[in-house]
Design a protein that fits this description.
Layout (H helix, E strand, L loop, with lengths): L3 E4 L5 H19 L4 H14 L1 E7 L2 E10 L3 E9 L8 H15 L3 E7 L3 H9 L3 E5 L3 E5 L19
Parallel strand pairs: 4-5
Antiparallel strand pairs: 1-2, 2-3, 3-4, 5-7, 6-7
Length: about 160
């Protein structure tokens, strides 16, 4: 299955929100409880301020990625796939490509995974990510490829696919 990426636009908010809820609500409910108004505000802020990329399988919405990029680091805020494209190696391919681009740009890449989401943690560990710190509800992870002291290079676009 071929997956293409593109920069998200306002028409992508509704499918991304639906996917956010279906993928994350069970974890969030088990940790803090689900506060609908807070979650909408959090989602809207991230959608507006992060580099948000839509994943498409053909012309179908297949997920989204959110990255927070600064002068030294890249934080992978979201990598969420639609249920019909999960477990096909797509997430691993996308993650490897983002990791490669981050490495080329001399950026350290991080992500956080819910402690209660053992499947996601196992996925990242299979892809070579390591837990670097523990927070109340999260594991902070990084990949050894991106632990660098090299000066960061300009980063123009992280579209993958």
């Amino acid at each position: 299955m071929d997956i293409a990426t593109r920069i998200a636009d306002t028409d992508d908010r509704a499918p991304a929100w639906a996917l956010y809820q279906s993928a994350l609500k069970p974890h969030i409910e088990s940790i803090w409880g689900w506060d609908q108004a807070w979650q909408i505000a959090y989602f809207e802020k991230a959608f507006s301020t992060s580099a948000t990329y839509v994943l498409e399988a053909g012309s179908e919405f297949a997920g989204y990625i959110q990255l927070d990029i600064n002068s030294r680091d890249i934080y992978l805020g979201m990598l969420v796939l639609a249920p019909n494209v999960r477990s096909r190696g797509i997430g691993a391919k996308l993650l490897a490509e983002i990791n490669r681009l981050a490495h080329q740009a001399g950026r350290t890449m991080h992500l956080r995974v819910f402690r209660v989401n053992g499947a996601a943690k196992r996925f990242y560990e299979r892809e070579g990510w390591q837990v670097k710190a523990e927070e109340d509800a999260f594991f902070l992870m990084t990949h050894p490829l991106n632990e660098t002291d090299q000066p960061a290079k300009p980063l123009h676009d992280l579209r993958v696919g």
